[in-house]
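Second opinion, please. Please look over this fold, written as C-alpha cells:

===
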Amino acid sequence: MRIDIITVLPELLRSPFEASILKRAIEKGLVEVHLHNLRDFATSSYNQIDDYQFGGGAGMVMMIEPIDKCISKLKAERDYDEIIYMTPDGETLNQSIANQLSLKENVILLCGHYKGVDQRVRDQFITREISVGDYVLSGGELGAAIVCDAVIRLIPGVLGNETSALTDSFQDNLLAPPIYTRPSEYKGWKVPDILLSGHNEKIDLWREEQAHKRTEEKRPDLFE
C-alpha cells in the first residue's frame, strides 16, 4: 500500500512514522508513506498557497492551483483508488472505513488548513471526505496521522499476531471484552476463573458475552 500525504506542515507528520508499528510497517516494505509539501507547488515567489475569500469573510482559503499541480503530478505517476480530503464536515472515521481503506493500493490524503480548500478542489479531485470527530483542528495533519494508524495496522503482516486486529473494539460493532494478564491475583483482586480454566470454547463464549454487555453499557448506539 502507498499513502501520499499533501500537507503544509510535513514536519508535523514525520514523527508518527518514525516510531512503533508504523515505522516497522514501512521498514518491512508493507506500506510506503510519502509527504508532499504543498508549498513546493506554489506559483508565487513567496510560496503562497492561500488567499482571501471571494465575497469577504474571516479566514484564508487554500488555493486550487498548487493543489491541482500536486495531485496532477501524483496521478501522472500512478492510479489512485481514493483521493481523500481531511475535513470536519466529512464522514466520521470508524472501523468500517478503516477496513475498507486497508484494502486499497494507492491513496492520497489532502490535509486542509485555514478555513479549508477552494470548493473546486472538492468538486473536481476529491473522491472521499473524512473527519476524525465533531471538532475542529488547526489542520488536517493530525487527522491524517490517525487515519494512517487505523489503516496501516490492518495490513497483513503489520501486527505480530494478525488475528489481533479482528478482536479490536468496533469490529462487528462491538466493544472489546475485558482483558487481564499476570498476576492472576493482586491485592485480592482476582482474574475471572473462566480465563484460567483452559477451556477455549467456554472462554470464547464468555468473551462474546462480555463484549455484548460492555457495548450495551457503554455504547448502546452501536446496536442501532
In short: The longest strand covers residues 82-92. The mean pLDDT is 94. The CA atoms of residues 29 and 213 lie 40 Å apart. Residues 200-218 form the longest helix (19 residues).
